[in-house]
Every structure is written in C-alpha cells, then in structure tokens.
Amino acid sequence: MPLLPCPFCSATVDVPASRAGSEIACPSCGKMIPVPKLGELRKLQSQSAESAAKPPASSTATGQRTAFALLMAIAAIAIVGASYCVVRYAAIEVPATSEDHIAEIEQLYSQMPDAQLVREWQEMEDFSPELASPYVYQLVAEEKSRWLRNALIGFAIAAVSGVIAFLSLSLGRTKD
Ligand SMILES: [Zn+2]
Predict the structure, then answer these.
(1) How far is the CA of 109 from the centre of ligand 1 (A)?
(2) How many domains does the chain contain in total?
(3) One domain, residues 15 and 64
(4) Are residues 45 and 126 in the same domain?
(5) Do 37 and 23 meet the contact criterion of CB atoms below 8 Å apart?
C-alpha cells in the first residue's frame, strides 16, 4: 500500500488505492488528509517500494568488501614474493664487474713485452675474439639483475592491486 505523509503531523498513512482522489483520516492526528489521484498514488507506491528494496544494496557492498579483501591478499602475496626476490638479489655477490675485468686485462698488457703484444694482436685478428660463452661474473650479474627485476615486478603488482582495492572501496562509498 502507498504511504502518504500527513501534512498536519509527521505521521505517514497507509492509503488503499480505492481512496484515491478522496480523503482519509490521519490515524495519528485525526485530521482529514486529501488523497491524491491514482496516478500520483502509484508514484508514491513505487517510491515506498524502492525504499523497501534497499537491503540488496548492502549485498553489493559485501561484494565490494570481498573484492577489496581479495585484492589486498594479492598485494600481500606480491609483497612477500618481491621481498624474497630482494633477499635473493642481496645475497648474490658478483665476483668482478666488467670494469674490474677490463682493468685486469689492461694491467696484463701493460706488463707484456712488445713482441708478445704484437703476437697477441695477430692472434686476435686470426681468431676474431668472439666469446663462445660469457664470463662467470656476467652470468652472476645477470642472475642478480633477474632477481631485482622480479622484485620490481612484485612490488608493481602489489602497488597496482593495492591502488585498485582502495579505489573500489572509495567508489563503493560514494555510491552509498
Ligand atoms: Zn496527521
């Protein structure tokens, strides 16, 4: 039944559709309230039906909370994974950098007699010095940078899912 607010007191009155266009006595203050025509009465009815249908909105709120919890769980897992990568990254010690290696070679050549330098040069020209396999320090450095990259990816995933989680939460708040 549509609810009609009494213009004389704050009570709301249940109005049967049969009373449309006539008057009804307010059960609270006893005054006669003019009842609107059927079309307007139906509008009132749909409004009160809307307010009655509010509870399902809270179920979307729990859905948002679930999504938030899920995203935060993903963020937490990503942070744990990234932290593990940081630990692995920090644990790896690169034996020597390329600069150290070059310095080593330079020192070696500076100590060489001229005749031997010429021979070395000729050998290099004959077998162009293409390295079949990279040096150990290069492999270690590559592994180290891989852990760093994985850590950065992990932190990025954590940041993105955290931001989405809080965005979904604040979007849900503004909707209410
Ligand atoms: Zn009244």
Answers:
(1) 108
(2) 2
(3) no
(4) no
(5) no
Full domain range(s) for residue 46: 3-52
Same domain? 42 vs 67 = no
- Alpha-carbon span 118 to 86, nearest angstrom: 47
Please tell me the distance between residue 4's alpha carbon and the centre of ligand 1 in angstroms. Answer: 10
Place of tokens 């609810």: 3
Measured between alpha carbons, how far is 14 from 3 in angstroms, rounded to an integer? 5
> Which protein residues have their CB within 5 A of the ion that is ligand 1?
6, 8-9, 11, 26, 28-29
Burial of residue 165, with CB atoms counted within 10 A of its CB: 0-12 exposed, 13-18 middle, 19 or more buried: buried
State the pairing for strand pair 32-34/23-25. Answer: antiparallel
Q: Is residue 85 domain-shared with residue 167, that is, in the same domain? A: yes
Residues 95 and 140 both lie in one domain = yes
pTM of the model: 0.47
The string of pLDDT tens digits covering residues 148-160 is 999 999 999 999 9
What pLDDT, in 10s, does the model give residues 89-118? 999 887 766 777 778 888 888 888 888 888
16 and 62 co-located in one domain? no
